[in-house]
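hey
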């Protein structure tokens, strides 16, 4: 991220937290009331480490400048050290450095004392700034700001989940970005109860109940976007563990080509989703982008001539011109009951968020046989597995063979950072692991994660994700195998004889295109036998 973008993000974050932002800090001479010897040490090594310094105040208030407004602990420590309410100003890291240098000069001039920045002074100051539990919880405002800031940071950094995990001596905050968890922050154990309670209040949960799991939702508008947050709490050995899943309801639905579907498959899918009836399934594990794929399909055929209705849990994106319903099991509004209701609404196209049981599967298939195009998802490892799963649910093979048009399995793999990825030649072992024949390759050139410092990806080596897919068409041969109750391996082998490409092969092609790495593809397709 370049400095301009970083400054803009800081400014937006400050506005979101209702904090003042200053491009140029106004740093007055340190006031006598603030114990200048200690003030100097704070502005030295401690201030640099925490990107937070006191820049002024009086007997009623301490003014604190920070370039890291998420650092609740640092501001809290200063408040307790001086026993004064704090007013926080957000500024850039460069301004913090300039202010420290400015105060160094003034302190040396006015008091003839240099800033004591050695390790002993730093350790002594850290010891004085241990947060007291009782004092910290008396003031809810910093906790509220901290929780808001964590959510804001998660949203702006494209995190899908926020994990707040209690351990014996700390509270750990982690973000899941592009499918991988990263450590973001660590708070003192004394803040645990206040932070957890704040999230539970926002989600409408019972803050007194700490023995049972709870689920709730938070609705926020962040940077002009409506964000729906699903909150889950569970009791653990060291207190309640909180996970928040973020859904940007105003995000733009991507075109199928933007989520990694190959051109050949795009042409086939475009024809399938324009059929008047039948069922199309998308399969994969949780978080593999199945719902995004279905939304992309619906957006492609969304015209005034069609009545498109969905039943989902939850509604992840708002689609203009499409009727969307959200299930609510607490009042017995399930996928099955929602689907029955939809069929009385004269639909042309129906999307069912997930086929979870035999009842929903049976209604969906019956709907597809009575003049409706049905799109839905299943949790299976591959495309062929969806067929046998339906039969295992108790659906008669003749119903499956006569209604099912196609199954697409998918996974998400991380995209290599285009700024730091490095070229290399694939080895014979890698080529075989990817399911390719070395004799068929025109090039062995591929890319792997870089090793140099990279600001663009924050040294994660990846930016964003793309899909890898396998598309299984239910042709006459496959229908015959379904009627014969053949297993998924037989169905898969038969499809391969007519050009069916597996997830791993699709991933291998993206490796050769420099989009992702061998490691990502092998990790995403570890169920396959090469």
């Amino acid at each position: 991220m370049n400095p301009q973008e970083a400054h803009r993000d800081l400014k937006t974050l400050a506005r979101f937290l209702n904090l003042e932002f200053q491009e140029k800090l106004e740093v007055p001479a340190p006031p006598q009331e603030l114990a200048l010897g200690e003030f100097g040490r704070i502005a030295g090594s401690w201030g640099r480490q925490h990107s937070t310094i006191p820049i002024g105040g009086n007997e009623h208030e301490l003014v604190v400048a920070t370039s890291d407004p998420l650092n609740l602990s640092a501001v809290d420590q200063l408040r307790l050290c001086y026993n004064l309410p704090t007013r926080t100003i957000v500024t850039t890291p460069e301004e913090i450095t300039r202010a420290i240098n400015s105060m160094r000069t003034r302190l040396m001039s006015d008091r003839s004392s240099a800033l004591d920045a050695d390790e002993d002074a730093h350790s002594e100051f850290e010891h004085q700034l241990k947060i007291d539990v009782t004092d910290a919880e008396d003031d809810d405002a910093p906790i509220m700001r901290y929780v808001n800031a964590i959510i804001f940071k998660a949203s702006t950094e494209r995190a899908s989940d926020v994990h707040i995990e209690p351990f014996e001596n700390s509270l750990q905050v982690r973000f899941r970005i592009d499918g991988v968890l990263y450590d973001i922050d660590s708070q003192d154990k004394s803040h645990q109860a206040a932070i957890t309670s704040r999230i539970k209040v926002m989600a409408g949960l019972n803050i007194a109940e700490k023995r049972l799991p709870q689920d709730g939702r938070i609705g926020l508008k962040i940077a002009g976007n409506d964000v729906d947050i699903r909150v889950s709490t569970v009791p653990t050995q060291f207190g309640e563990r909180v996970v928040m899943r973020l859904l940007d309801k105003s995000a733009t639905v991507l075109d199928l080509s933007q989520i990694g579907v190959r051109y050949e498959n795009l042409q086939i899918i475009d024809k399938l989703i324009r059929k008047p009836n039948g069922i199309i399934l998308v399969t994969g594990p949780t978080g593999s982008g199945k719902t995004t794929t279905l939304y992309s399909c619906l957006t492609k055929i969304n015209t005034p001539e069609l009545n498109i209705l969905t039943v989902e849990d939850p509604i992840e994106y708002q689609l203009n011109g499409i009727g969307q319903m959200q299930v609510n099991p607490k009042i017995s509004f399930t996928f099955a009951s929602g689907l029955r209701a939809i069929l009385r609404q004269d639909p042309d196209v129906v999307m069912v968020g997930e086929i979870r049981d035999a009842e929903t599967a049976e209604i969906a298939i019956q709907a597809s046989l009575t003049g409706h195009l049905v799109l839905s998802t299943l949790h299976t490892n591959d495309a062929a597995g969806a067929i046998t799963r339906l039969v295992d649910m108790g659906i008669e093979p003749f119903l499956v063979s006569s209604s099912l048009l196609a199954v697409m399995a998918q996974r998400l793999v991380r995209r290599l950072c285009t700024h730091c990825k490095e070229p290399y030649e694939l080895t014979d072992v890698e080529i075989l692991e990817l399911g390719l024949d070395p004799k068929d390759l025109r090039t062995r050139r591929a890319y792997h994660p870089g090793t140099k410092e990279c600001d663009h990806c924050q040294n994660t080596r990846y930016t964003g994700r793309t899909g890898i897919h396998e598309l299984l068409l239910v042709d006459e041969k496959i229908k015959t195998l379904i009627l014969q109750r053949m297993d998924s391996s037989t169905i898969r082998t038969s499809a391969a004889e007519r050009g069916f490409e597996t997830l791993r092969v699709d991933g291998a092609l993206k490796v050769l295109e420099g989009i992702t790495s061998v490691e990502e593809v092998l990790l995403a397709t570890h169920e396959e036998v090469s």
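Residues 108-138 have pLDDT under 50 and may be disordered. The domain at 256-413+467-503 is CATH 3.40.50.300 (Rossmann fold).
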